[in-house]
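Exam prep: given the inputs below (a chain plus magnesium ion), describe the expected output before reading on.
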Amino acid sequence: MFDSLQDGLKGAFKSLRGKGKLTEGNMRDGLKLVENSLLEADVSIDVVRSFMSSVTEQALGEKVLLSLAPSEQLVKVVRDELVEILGPVDEELRLDKPLNIIMMCGLQGSGKTTTCGKLAKMLQRKAKIKPLLCAADLQRPAAIDQLHVLGDQLGVPVYSDKEEKDPVKVCQAAVAKAKAENISVLILDTAGRLAIDEELMEQLKTIDRQVQPDHVFLVVDGMTGQDAVKSAGAFHEALELNGVVMTKLDGDARGGALLSVKHVTGVPIRFIGTGEHLEDLEVFRPEGMASRILGMGDMLAIADQAQMLVDEEEQIKMQEALEKGQFSLEDFRNHMLKMAKPGLMQKMMGLLPGMPNMREINEMMSQGETSKQIKQMVGMIDSMTPRERKDPKLIDASRRQRIAAGSGVQAKQVTELVKQYEQMKPMLTGMAGMGAGDRAQQLQELQQQMMDPSKMGRRSPKKSTGARLSPAKKKQMKKEREKRLRQIKREKRNKKKPGGDDNVADE
Ligand SMILES: Nc1nc2c(ncn2[C@@H]2O[C@H](COP(=O)(O)OP(=O)(O)OP(=O)(O)O)[C@@H](O)[C@H]2O)c(=O)[nH]1
Ligand SMILES: [Mg+2]
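Solution:
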């Protein structure tokens, strides 16, 4: 994300590093580089001016100039200022009314319908809320079908009415359905147009007046740069937006729109879209984004992505096995396969501090080395007997030969795999009792080791530094897990029953 902006800022900080004596002169040179990289990233000129005046004032202050590490001080000043222009943002989606209505609007093709689906997925995953989607885009008949496809994929109900010509009536009927069925969140997918036109604005204003959504989100295409900022201004004037969802930041968006939108329109970014898949939506946090732009990583986003690797039922089971100290080669194999899911690894890596930027990662991954390694690992594990997978110590020299022959590798690779597993096991089982922060850190280490297997075994697995859970807390967590597992099973059963999809009331 924002490779050239990152490179530019890094260059600016580097120019100050190792300078024998820092003067106002060379600090000004560094600042000029910061300014250039913002302009090249298509940040609006007003934002650049105000950003630079604030940063310059602080960077030329005595504290920075006299400090031992001025380049780090400058990083801090720039980071604080980035957070300042991106925020503040209310990260919490307040959904505490009996029925909460979210209206999604925006220009054609900006990603409204996709974002409705992504948000529905996020609500299910994070808040255990099954929303109702409403097809209020009557411009294209295909739009209704598109939303139904998403609904089916996610197992969430979709309200539509192909006979009705008035989107306001469709929304009102959806509200009635949600109320009747005790659905707590309703998401309206509205129609887009090619450019901002009166008719579209009037239609949206009427829906706003008649349906009174609690949240009005504008979806803008991050690739369109300052045009996205302009359209956000116009929509905000007409509708009083609660927030912006900026999509397509996985492409070659330069970052200008992201950095300008809050400053220019006063509307904060609430979510960002980072891909075409339904899990590619992130809650927008200014601190995390500022760190990410500066190549310092975003730990919370990493933890979130990692969680998405495994589905919830699997996660609970894995957690249980880990707490008991059980983590078989079979689990190891499944874990590897999850990591090999196209795109996911790249994304996680992109979030890690000190990692090469996306461009380099993509080049690295496209050479196919990693996926080849994973394929080999899976092949080896598949060639083992179930008993060996549980207890690889059973594998002797002759079995090692057989396994290697069966999976087309050398015998010493089998030895290496077992070694790798033995080293990962205590790390993972140790992680089972940690809090989220520690776990994220551990995960990061694990990830780095996986990318560079030569590092494995060079140091002994790190002991947890975080507070351990008390036995009472563990017991309580176990109880909650079992309850949730029963719930998931019930949901799955309901889903199989015809019409069971809509059955949210019995949750
Ligand atoms: N790469 C990428 N593609 C996205 C993202 N969000 C949406 N898209 C793609 O953008 C295209 C348009 O998305 P839609 O959700 O149909 O857009 P829309 O705003 O509903 O379009 P209309 O209903 O025609 O106005 C689709 O091909 C999506 O897959 C994103 O975050 N990243
Ligand atoms: Mg649409």
